[in-house]
Amino acid sequence: MAFVHLDVVRFYTLLICAVFSSVSSNAEIKVNPPQDFEIVDPGYLGYLCLQWQPPLSLENFEECTVEYELKYRNIDSEDWKTIITKNLHYKDGFDLNKGIEAKIHTLLPPHCTNGSKVQSLWSEATYWIAPQGNQETKIQEMDCVYYNWQYLYCSWKPGMGVHFNTSYQLFYWYDGLDHATQCAEYIQVDGQNIGCRFPYLEASDYKDFYICVNGSSDSDPVRPSYFIFQLQNIVKPLPPDYLIITVKNSEEVNLKWATPNGPIPAKCFIYEIEFTEDDTTWVTTTVENELHTTRISNKSQQLCFSVRSKVNIYCSDDGIWSEWSGKQCWKGLLWRKRSLLSSGHILLTQ
Ligand SMILES: *[C@@H]1O[C@H](CO)[C@@H](O)[C@H](O)[C@H]1NC(C)=O
Ligand SMILES: *[C@@H]1O[C@H](CO)[C@@H](O)[C@H](O)[C@H]1NC(C)=O
Ligand SMILES: *[C@@H]1O[C@H](CO)[C@@H](O)[C@H](O)[C@H]1NC(C)=O
Ligand SMILES: *[C@@H]1O[C@H](CO)[C@@H](O)[C@H](O)[C@H]1NC(C)=O
Fold first, then answer.
1. Which residues constitute the signal peptide according to the record (predicted)?
2. Position in ligand 4 atom list of the atom nearest CA 298
């Protein structure tokens, strides 16, 4: 027993020594945090630049490529975004309705430090646009639709209880514009701006689109509102047209329609079809511009369908359904006989 106990004591002593020696050898390698870490707002309505300078006393690690681990988030969000980079800046889009916080530390790769990963303390930075005006002066119910992937239109309602002479202005920016640009064609009601009709937006798809609606009034400052979205995700196409319905061998039904006119490629559509056979209605979707089906009963007298379109998941993350097309119908034999009879009747009475 005594031997075993002694061995255990010796084992722990060895272990403690080992731990201490590794700590002390690691403690010799230290690196400073990056310097002058800051969040810079170039005036692009949410597209910010995080930038920093190399840490002091890097000369001990001349052979090493220093890396930086950068973490950032909007202040009330749960998750940090993490980036590892060798550069001295990083750019991303942020929601300027909220504050932004970021932190960064220097990393020394293991081959520079005898196998252990060495990191500095964090440098921290925050950014927020000092809030002006009260919450009630913000615009409400902002709604933006990119009609047929061609015409962007945004509309809003004035803030609650703002004076009638409060005037709102819309600014927008995306990568490709030199600077934030003001709306050139406002939609107005009683002289107050309540929307914007955008000009042609060259090369604006699949990138963040930033909007700020701010304003001014005689009495109170107006709280600005910021929005970020991607245009391909708010497309509302035109409804399909040239609907054709044909019935073959008394029960095979073929529905066909034309792809909506405009710049949206045919492969980007999904269609929803509403089909009515006498009193029965069903709805289905397809990515083709035709659909084969069969009649429930070959005695049914009226088959009708209409279609609407949306941009599909192969071309965007989201979209808005078009209006429904007009209805196209096929009418059964019995119906045709009846209508012939009734038109004959009309002829007789004339
Ligand atoms: C790595 O270990 C060697 C040998 O133990 C030592 O001479 C050298 O100074 C150590 N390097 C660093 C960066 O601590
Ligand atoms: C704006 O509205 C406020 C409150 O109704 C009024 O006191 C002020 O004179 C108006 N200003 C102008 C320029 O019409
Ligand atoms: C609204 O925002 C634009 C773009 O950032 C800015 O140039 C303008 O001065 C702002 N207007 C007001 C009244 O704050
Ligand atoms: C109609 O359907 C019935 C049974 O489903 C079938 O026996 C009959 O031949 C069909 N009529 C025509 C004209 O195809």
1. 1-25
2. 1
3-state secondary structure 269-282: EEEEEEEEECCEEE
The rounded Å distance from CA 26 to ligand 1 centre is 10
| Ligand 2 atom 14: residue of nearest CA | 165
216 CA distance to ligand 3 middle (Å) = 9
Give the length of the chain.
350
Residue 131 has pLDDT above 70, yes or no: yes
337 by DSSP, 3-state: which? helix
Q: What is the mean pLDDT of residues 266-284?
A: 96
**The CATH number of 237-349 is which of 2.60.40.3080, 3.20.20.140, 2.60.40.10, 3.40.50.261?**
2.60.40.10
**Ligand 3 atom closest to Cα of residue 214:** 1
Locus of tokens 């073929």: 254
**What's the rounded Cα separation, in Å, for the pair 281 and 344?**
32
Question: Is residue 281 lining ligand 4, measured as CB closer than 6 Å?
Answer: no
Kindly state the DSSP code that residue 177 receives in the 8-state scheme.
B
Structural fold of domain 135-235:
Immunoglobulin-like (2.60.40)
What's the 120 CA to ligand 1 centre distance in angstroms?
Answer: 19
Given a contact cutoff of 8 angstroms between Cβ atoms, the answer to whether 325 and 257 are in contact is yes
**In which residue are the tokens 């709604």 written?**
143
pLDDT in tens, 13-47: 444 434 343 444 445 678 899 999 999 999 999 99
Give the type of residue at 25.
S
Q: Does the 31-127 domain belong in CATH 2.60.40.10?
A: yes
Q: Hey, what amino acid is at 143?
A: D
The encoded tokens of residue 295 equal: 């009649």
Domain ranges of the chain: 1-27, 31-127, 135-235, 237-349
Q: Using alpha carbons, list the distances in angstroms from residue 289 to 124, 174, 240, 274, 329.
A: 55, 34, 9, 14, 17
Pocket lining for ligand 2, CB < 6 angstroms: 163, 165, 218-219
Both tokens assigned to 296 = 């429930």
Both ends of the chain: CA-CA distance in Å?
125
Cα of 136 to ligand 2 centre, how many Å?
Answer: 18
Q: What separation in Å is there between the alpha carbon of 135 and the centre of ligand 2?
A: 20
Q: What is the pLDDT of residues 64-83, one digit of tens each?
A: 889 999 999 999 899 999 99
